[in-house]
Amino acid sequence: MLHNCPDWPEAAADWYRKNGCWQGKTFGDMLRERAVLYGEHTAVICRDERLSYEDLDDRVDRLAFGLGKLGIKPLDRVVVQLPNIPQFVEVIFALFRLGAVPVMALPSHRSSEITYFCRFAEAAAYVIPDTYAGFDYRRLAAEVQRDVPHVREVIVAGEPEGFMSLNDLYKESGSLPAVRSDDIVLFQLSGGSTGLPKLIPRRHDDYMYSLKASVEVCGLDHNSVYLAALPAAHNFPLSSPGVLGTLYAGGTVVFSPGPSPDEAFPVIAQERVTITALVPPLALQWLEAVETRQVDLSSLQILQVGGAKFSAEAARRVKPTLGCTLQQVFGMAEGLVNYTRLDDPEEVVIHTQGRPMSVYDEIRIVDEDDHEVERGQTGQLLTRGPYTIPGYYNAEEHNAKVFTSDGFYRTGDLARLTPQGNLVVEGRVKDQINRGGEKVAAEEVENHLLAHPSVHDAAVVSMPDAFLGERTCAFVIAREPKPSAAQLRSFIRQRGLAAYKIPDRVEFIDSFPLTPFGKVSKKELRNTINQLMMVSEERK
Ligand code: OOB
After folding, report:
1. CA nearest ligand 1 atom 14, residue
2. Is the pLDDT of residue 18 over 90?
3. Ligand 1 probe mutation, 193, 202, 211, 332, most atoms within 8 A of CB
4. What is the per-residue pLDDT across 49-88, written as a single tens digit (0 to 9) for each?
5. Looking at the domain assignment, is residue 165 inside a domain?
6. What keywords tag this UniProt record (predicted)?
């Protein structure tokens, strides 16, 4: 058992077991069973490479054994930062089978995030590609290993250049340790609203249940072909139903080199993709692109859109333009996932973010005093259930704030319930910017800005954006010698922050507006940037 991972109360755990949510199965077992059932059926496709279920199962066994020989033990944490390539699936399943725990980093993370994950999770190893999207991950790994010496192994998919080659780890298989279904299967990362992202411990039992329920809602089976266009480590393309749900259903996962129409459309046509998932800005791009080119998207049955609010105007265009059913997905790496159903009336699919996928999900919509609001009123969304975590890893103080005494997770989202029981997301109370599905914790960026010698104070807020929905604006009180916006942005980049967290705009200000309690009024700052944007629009 890993320490510092809060568990469900015993009575709740018994109830979820008794009702068949938690079935006592591990991810290693699940893949083995699928290999028996689906043998030569294709599990994973990437460019010209095809892996059957049997091949995948065998490669995972050999890699698990090789990783074990290298010294990776059950419960060891391993930061995995791989793009959408078949090795992504092999590595995580090998770790699952070994009982080691992947920390699901995104390819866009840089030294600031990765060093923190390695340190906080006390990772024993770090798995990377050689290069991806023009970036050399081996340079990043060298920096990480220098700062965090307990990262004993850096394992490279591709040219290892002095590190350990992933290819060399596929050994003859031998015996593997027993893994428990109530162990942690992986750590997801929170979008966060505090200075540092939190680690989300998901267990075999609860994560598997989220796959089972997702697969049922989305109607996946062995004929389904899922295109992984978004970065597969994120909870949406990983498990809703995503890569893992597709394998659970015996279907085929196709990895796209990227999510743009140029990259994804030919793959959809060639592999007869039936379902894929996008964030709203990409869905907009696809809707535009399809108007101007000759593409065969006739195999596509379901387009899932989630991660950020999808506008009703864009939602309305999906069926007529792409010829497939839209499914809105409102989920979170902490657990709860809501889907519009495939047979929902059009108005529900266009105007709501769906309803919880499990009858065992409990939701409450409350006011500032935690009292439930009247049905239909907007309030803060709280949730508890068989696949929503009861607490973050090693974060006692934060957990006391973010979970109620009876175990509900405070999502930080503002939502209301329609008379039919669907949720509509109306905003958020958490100090986070949702940049087209990529979450930016204001405090994390503020802390980096404050590290600059000429920054006296900083406050990061969202500003509206037609394409991404929101972008980030940093308000800065500077001292002499005053830096330029470009200097501050480059300072942040050099501190090794993921590119999507670098402020889109920097505004210098003499003092911050305050709330009656004396806190910085981010609402006022959002109004200020809106007005500045309106003025510059009028000037155009
Ligand atoms: C997904 O997971 P995270 O952890 O990156 O972000 C969760 C947050 C939610 O609390 C909400 O603020 C926002 O992202 N969000 C949406 C949304 N889907 C997520 N806001 C409005 N409309 C939506 N459809 O983003 C995630 C995880 C699993 C499945 C889908 C999305």
Report:
1. 307
2. yes
3. 332
4. 999 999 999 999 999 999 999 999 999 999 999 999 999 9
5. yes
6. Ligase
Kindly give the distance from the C-alpha atom of residue 437 to the centroid of ligand 1, in angstroms, as a whole number. 7
Q: Which residues line ligand 1 (CB under 6 A)?
A: 191, 235-236, 240, 306-309, 328-333, 337, 353, 411, 413, 425, 428, 434, 439
Give me the CATH number covering residue 99. 3.40.50.980
- Return the pLDDT at 408: 98
Domain count, the chain: 2
Strand partners, 89: none
Mutate to test the pocket of ligand 1, among 330, 380, 387, 434 (most ligand atoms within 8 A of CB): 330
In this structure, the residue with its CA closest to atom 30 of ligand 1 is 331
Neighbouring residues of 234: CB distance < 8 A, sequence distance ≥ 6: 104, 106, 307, 333
For residue 22, the surrounding DSSP H or E stretch is none
Taking the CB of residue 39, how many other CB atoms lie within 10 A of it? 12
pLDDT of 233: 98
| pLDDT over 90 (residue 257) | no
Supply the residue whose CA is at minimum distance from atom 22 of ligand 1: 309
The model's pLDDT over 258-289, given as tens digits with 9 standing for 90+, comes to: 999 999 999 999 999 999 999 999 999 999 99
| Residue 301 resides in a domain | no
Alpha helical stretches, state H, 52-181: 53-69, 86-98, 111-120, 137-147
Q: Answer with the one of 128, 159, 179 that is the final residue of a domain.
A: 179
End of a domain among 152, 179, 206? 179
Residues 6+ apart with CB under 8 A from 140: 110, 111, 114, 128
- Segments forming the whole domain that contains residue 56: 52-179
Decide if 343 is inside a domain: no
| CA-CA-CA-CA torsion sign (235, 237, 242, 244) | negative
User: Residue 488 maps to which CATH number?
Assistant: 3.30.300.30
